[in-house]
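Dear H.,

Thanks for agreeing to be a second pair of eyes. The structure we're designing against is below in token form, covering all 100 positions.
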């Protein structure tokens, strides 16, 4: 995880979780992918920026997942997933990854 930006891990978890659920037709499997990437991202957030930032970004990750569902009814599933993944990636980059 040391070389992979947390923004990429978080966005990949949202996109990968949805893709896994959609292509396998097993929603719980998508949830496992989503949760695993979220845990890896949260560990990186905590290590790089502390507990408060990790908690805030973890909340944003969960909110993005939840918010993607009603958004999908308005703009479609894939556009919704990409939109929320981009939002979480941006927040992660601003709060954590741009720091050197």
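And this is the sequence the design step returned. I haven't edited it by hand at all.
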């Amino acid at each position: 995880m040391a070389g992979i930006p947390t923004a990429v891990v978080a966005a990949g978890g949202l996109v990968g979780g949805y893709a896994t659920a959609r292509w396998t037709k097993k929603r719980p499997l998508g949830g496992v992918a989503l949760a695993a990437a979220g845990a890896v991202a949260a560990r990186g957030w905590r290590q790089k920026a502390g507990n408060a930032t990790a908690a805030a970004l973890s909340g944003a990750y969960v909110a993005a997942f939840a918010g993607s569902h009603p958004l999908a009814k308005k703009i479609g599933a894939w556009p919704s997933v990409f939109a929320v993944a981009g939002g979480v990636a941006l927040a992660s980059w601003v709060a954590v990854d741009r720091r050197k």
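Two observations from my side: The chain has one domain: 7-97. The chain has a mean pLDDT of 96.

Warmly,
E.
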